[in-house]
């Protein structure tokens, strides 16, 4: 397939598209189609890769499991290289990124009037940053993308958000920055320890993971990585930025935050945290599992008490990501595949839920659960999708979240049965608050006379596509699991290798 | 000394002749050609310095043109040129008349050139003092504002004290080592008089780059002095003081007893500077405390041995670009009313998109967010620190850097997330200002994305 630098194109296409907006700043009519076109092109590229990924040969120089690979020198003095690679995990998450970005652009199609060019520019820049995070295999490069994706989200929340938007934006930024700066120290530490031991000074992940870094400093280094990733996750008790950020973010921001940014934390742990410090990570696993379980129970409990729909969905995200963390903690092939699948599932389902709440908010200007009621009769199409995604989020069999949660619990049970038993409560609790939400919003008698219109064809199309994905993955997750088998096998060291 | 010796000295002569031409012409011809002559002289000096073969020494004059001096001469000349571009509009205001100002900037640039190309301690001191004298004048230049005169007085008094410290330190080092040549004097064993000399030298230079506890003049002077002067003061003068240290420290066999004072200076500057900046409602004072903190990071680099010297040199360049951008925007905005408080910048990112974007970029760079040169610089510093075993100080530095993001973000929040009460469209920057801002922003982004050449360069010149 030629010498096209596909990964570089994937990473920088959105950025270039975003920069194209600058000269067209005042041609408002061109902007939306341009931004959407760029995002669709990215999605098409990712979709094409999904289709052909199975047949791609391993490129020369690539580590096992990677079917696309690009490397070039960048800052030689420090052993920093421009290293991009794609295996099944990256591919899935990149495809999710491309998809969610398109959704984010579409849900804000009509709601963004002020400073629209800046809005599209930021979303595209963020897409570049997130794709970069999922593809970078050089620790320095990874850190760079990791930080770059913060800035657009900070602006998205701060400029187009509501409520205490500035407070939330700054809180989001400072929380994540503190974590990632400590990770930067750890990255430098890893580099130096590896260099002193082997004589090869490099930030390249494939080289760093070959030499096992079981030193006295390893727990500290791993803790710094874990801290940075756990904030993004968000793992209890580092989650407090998330409900604020979600509640005050504009719809597109919430969709991207839930659909993508949370995934970067989990991805970082899977790709960097565990492989760099396998033994230490094993030792930390009970702690991670404990925090995950506390997060699952606690978040579901708090979600129950929320009056604001967006806040409720936000807390439910904390709970769902707890499952992902549990799967990673157990580090068995089944649980890990489940976790990665669950990242995709959660991205689509929660993204759809935030979009749904955003649509209500656009129409009635309130997100209070108590304001609604009787939507089932009034806006039937909307209500149908609302019910579907709420059930998917609660883990109804046949819909996608069930598959992920099931795999995580099955995979974790042999190693940590106690955690699984408690986490099981975490499956029941969402059912309770979801049923309550659905009952109050859809079936309760109407409490305020709100003039609501049903979904437009644009909104309907977004929801229909997301619903189709939910159902498809719920019934037939095999293609994605096949894609994950090789990389997960390599990561966990249990079969499935080349 | 022969006529041929004048060849390598030409950069110095160009600067002196340039400023004399400006002064002489100012006496007879009215007009505002000072900026043009000044910029041409600076760029001419920079180009000439690049033509002089490296490792040219003139022992009779105590001058040595090394790759190190070349790099810094070019940096200072560009800084001076940008300052002149930024001041052009300032000088057109009523009550200002211009020719002494560009002439004095050129004198300051001359002092910096002398400093970085000196081979003896005496020349170092002469260079430092001639640039400081120029700044005494520049800081107090705006006679219409009483704060400017007050700032000038403060700077003069503390500057005089620091000069005394440095002179005494040099005398003690001379007494202890028996030579004025940098290589010999700095290489002498750290005992008795030389150690005391180094102590005085450090104390004096701590004033110059405003390290805590010698930082107290900084906020007042930054607030009072004309903004383009602050741009130059915070970049050129600090860069010169860093160059001063970089000329001496690498010759030391080991930091030895100097480690503790440097450690304390770095620690206090990073913590006190960042914490004090959190509370500042005034943007210039905020940037003043931020510069205290930033110099703390440089001190951390200087503590960290060879890699640290490279990081410090890199950071001098990075810091110059970031501060020129920040103060450039403030200077350019001052035309349309007072812009003292951070609050005054509400919604400015939309009314004046160019100014807003450059200021926001500078803030992100100062906070060390990639892909800006500020991040590359901080990375190099923490890298060197951890490498030399200063892990505790590196962790403190990281935590204070995270704290600093709060006040840099405060500026960005005001620029883009708060709306102002009914103000019309703002003015776009003038052509010289636009050129200056564009150059600084370009440096911030380009050196952030691809810092490799500059890293290689500073490593080469420090060898």
List the quaternary state of the chains. Answer: heterodimer
Spatial strand order of the main sheet of chain A: 1-2
Would you report the number of β strands of chain B?
Answer: 2
Class based on secondary structure composition and strand pairing of chain B:
mainly alpha
N/C terminus separation of chain A: 22 Å
The low-confidence runs of chain B, each spanning 5 or more residues with pLDDT under 50, are: none
The radius of gyration of chain A is 22 Å
Which term fits the overall shape of chain A?
globular
Structural class of chain A: mainly alpha
Count of separate DSSP helical elements of chain B: 19
Query: What is the C-alpha radius of gyration of chain B, as a whole number of Å?
Result: 21 Å
* H-E order of chain B: HHEEHHHHHHHHHHHHHHHHH
Biggest interface, CB < 8 A: A-B, 32 and 31 residues
Sheet with the most strands, sense and barrel status of chain B: 2 strands, antiparallel
Instruction: Flag low-confidence runs of chain A.
Output: none
């Amino acid at each position: 397939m030629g010498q096209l630098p596909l990964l570089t194109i994937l990473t920088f296409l959105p950025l270039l598209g975003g920069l194209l907006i600058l000269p067209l700043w005042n041609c408002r009519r061109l902007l939306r189609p341009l931004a959407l076109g760029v995002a669709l092109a990215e999605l098409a590229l990712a979709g094409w890769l999904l289709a052909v990924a199975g047949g791609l040969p391993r490129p020369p120089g690539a580590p096992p499991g990677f079917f696309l690979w690009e490397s070039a020198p960048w800052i030689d003095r420090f052993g920093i290289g421009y290293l991009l690679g794609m295996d099944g995990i990256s591919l899935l998450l990149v495809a999710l990124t491309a998809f969610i970005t398109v959704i984010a652009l579409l849900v804000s199609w009509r709601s963004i009037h002020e400073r629209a060019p800046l809005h599209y520019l930021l979303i595209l820049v963020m897409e570049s940053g997130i794709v970069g995070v999922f593809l970078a295999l050089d620790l320095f490069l990874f850190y760079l993308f990791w930080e770059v994706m913060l800035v657009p989200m900070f602006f998205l929340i701060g400029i187009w958000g509501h409520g205490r938007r500035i407070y939330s934006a700054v809180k989001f930024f400072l929380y994540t920055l503190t974590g990632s700066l400590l990770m930067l120290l750890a990255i430098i530490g890893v580099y130096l320890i590896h260099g002193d031991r082997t004589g090869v000074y490099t930030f390249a992940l494939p080289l760093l993971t070959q030499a096992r870094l079981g030193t006295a400093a390893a727990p500290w280094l791993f803790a710094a990585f874990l801290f940075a990733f756990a904030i993004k996750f968000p793992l209890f008790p580092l989650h407090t930025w998330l409900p604020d950020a979600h509640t005050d973010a504009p719809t597109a921001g919430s969709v991207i935050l839930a659909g993508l940014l949370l995934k970067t934390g989990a991805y970082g742990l899977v790709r960097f945290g565990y492989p760099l410090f396998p033994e230490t990570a094993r030792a930390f696993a009970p702690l991670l599992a404990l925090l995950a379980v506390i997060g699952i129970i606690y978040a579901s409990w708090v979600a129950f008490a929320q009056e604001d729909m967006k806040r409720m969905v936000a807390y439910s995200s904390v709970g769902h990501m707890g499952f992902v963390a549990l799967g990673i903690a157990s580090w068995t092939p089944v649980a890990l595949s489940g976790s990665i699948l669950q990242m995709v599932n959660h991205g689509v389902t929660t993204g759809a839920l935030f979009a749904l709440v955003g649509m209500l908010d656009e129409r009635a200007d309130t997100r209070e659960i108590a304001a609604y009621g009787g939507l089932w009769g009034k806006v039937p199409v909307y209500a149908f999708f609302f019910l579907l995604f709420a059930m998917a989020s609660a883990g109804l069999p046949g819909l996608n979240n069930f598959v992920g949660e099931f795999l995580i619990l099955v995979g974790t049970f042999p190693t940590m049965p106690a955690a699984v038993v408690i986490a099981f409560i975490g499956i029941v609790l969402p059912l309770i608050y979801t049923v309550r939400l659905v009952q109050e919003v859809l079936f309760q008698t109407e409490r305020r006379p709100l003039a609501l219109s049903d979904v437009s064809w644009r909104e309907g199309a977004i929801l229909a596509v997301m619903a189709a994905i939910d159902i498809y993955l719920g019934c037939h997750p095999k293609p994605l699991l096949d894609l994950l088998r090789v990389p997960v096998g390599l990561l966990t060291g249990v079969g499935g290798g080349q | 000394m022969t006529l041929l010796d004048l060849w390598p000295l030409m950069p110095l002569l160009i600067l002196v002749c340039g400023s004399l031409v400006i002064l002489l012409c100012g006496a007879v011809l009215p007009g505002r050609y000072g900026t043009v002559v000044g910029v041409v002289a600076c760029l001419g000096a920079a180009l000439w310095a690049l033509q002089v073969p490296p490792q040219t020494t003139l022992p009779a004059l105590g001058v040595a043109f090394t790759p190190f001096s070349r790099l810094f001469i070019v940096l200072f000349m560009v800084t001076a040129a940008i300052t002149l571009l930024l001041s052009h509009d300032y000088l057109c205001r009523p009550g200002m008349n211009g020719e002494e100002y560009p002439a004095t900037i050129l004198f300051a640039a001359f002092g910096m050139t002398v400093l970085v190309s000196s081979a003896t301690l005496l020349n170092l001191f002469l260079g430092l003092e001639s640039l400081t004298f120029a700044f005494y004048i520049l800081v107090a230049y705006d006679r219409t504002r009483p704060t400017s005169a007050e700032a000038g007085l403060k700077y003069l008094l503390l500057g005089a004290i620091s000069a005394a410290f440095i002179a005494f330190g040099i005398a003690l080092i001379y007494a202890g080592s028996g030579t004025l040549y940098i290589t010999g004097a700095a290489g002498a064993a750290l005992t008795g008089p030389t150690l005391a000399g180094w102590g005085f030298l450090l104390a004096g230079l701590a004033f110059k780059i405003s390290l805590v506890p010698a930082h107290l003049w900084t906020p007042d002077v930054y607030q009072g002095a004309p903004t383009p002067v602050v741009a130059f003061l915070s970049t050129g003068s600090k860069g010169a003081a860093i160059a001063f240290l970089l000329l001496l420290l690498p010759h030391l066999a080991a930091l030895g007893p100097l480690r503790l004072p440097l450690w304390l200076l770095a620690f206090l500057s990073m913590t006190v500077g960042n914490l004090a900046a959190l509370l500042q409602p005034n943007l210039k004072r905020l940037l003043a405390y931020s510069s205290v903190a930033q110099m703390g990071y440089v001190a951390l680099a200087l503590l960290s041995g060879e890699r640290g010297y490279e990081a410090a040199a890199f950071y001098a360049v990075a810091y110059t670009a970031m501060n020129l951008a920040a103060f450039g925007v403030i200077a350019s905005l001052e035309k349309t009313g007072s812009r003292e408080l951070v609050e005054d910048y509400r919604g400015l990112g939309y009314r004046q998109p160019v100014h807003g974007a450059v200021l926001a970029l500078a803030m992100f760079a100062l906070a060390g967010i990639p892909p800006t040169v500020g991040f590359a610089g901080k990375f190099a510093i923490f890298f060197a620190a951890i490498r030399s075993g200063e892990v505790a100080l590196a962790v403190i530095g990281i935590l204070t850097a995270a704290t600093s993001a709060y006040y840099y973000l405060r500026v960005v929040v005001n620029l883009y997330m708060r709306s102002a009460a009914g103000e019309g469209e703002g003015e776009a920057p003038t052509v010289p200002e636009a050129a200056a801002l564009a150059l600084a922003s370009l440096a911030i982004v380009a050196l952030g994305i691809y810092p490799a050449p500059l890293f290689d360069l500073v490593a080469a010149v420090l060898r």
